[in-house]
């Protein structure tokens, strides 16, 4: 899988939409849009991801390519909220979470501790995004 440079992403439209990550999966011949959210999944995140997937499909995807996939990685999610948010989507979209605690010890030692990461991400003790 190869990452698409920001300069290439800016060709998507006249004004730049800030995709977090855009990859091209060489074996599957498809684009993969990845959105990163530090807080809990919100239904509007699915709408934004769907927008990016449609934009990439319309502007970059060629006839020989498989449909673009959208992946949203967030700090937390409610499975019911995700199901309803993605329920009528015609595009292949997925939502996943990440956790610092599941890293192998060797990788965990190379990173700041959980409190430092939480502070850097702007979260409170419950893992909610701080709005400042």
TrEMBL record:
Query: Pfam families, from UniProt?
Result: YhcG_C
Q: Which InterPro entries match?
A: PD-DEXK-like_domain (IPR053148), tRNA_endonuc-like_dom_sf (IPR011856), YhcG_C (IPR009362)
Ranges where the YhcG PDDEXK nuclease domain occurs: 16-100
State a single Gene Ontology molecular function: nucleic acid binding
Tell me the domain of life.
Bacteria
Please state what the protein is called.
Answer: DUF1016 family protein
């Amino acid at each position: 899988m190869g990452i698409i440079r920001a300069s290439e992403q800016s060709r998507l439209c006249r004004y730049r939409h800030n995709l977090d990550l855009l990859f091209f999966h060489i074996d599957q011949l498809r684009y993969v849009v990845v959105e990163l959210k530090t807080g809990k999944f919100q239904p509007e995140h699915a709408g934004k991801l769907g927008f990016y997937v449609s934009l990439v499909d319309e502007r970059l995807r060629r006839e020989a390519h498989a449909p673009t996939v959208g992946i949203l990685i967030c700090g937390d999610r409610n499975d019911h909220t995700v199901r309803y948010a993605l329920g009528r989507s015609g595009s292949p979209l997925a939502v996943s979470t990440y956790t610092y605690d599941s890293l192998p010890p060797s990788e965990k030692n190379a990173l700041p501790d959980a409190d430092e990461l939480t502070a850097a991400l702007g979260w409170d003790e419950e893992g909610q995004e701080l709005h400042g």
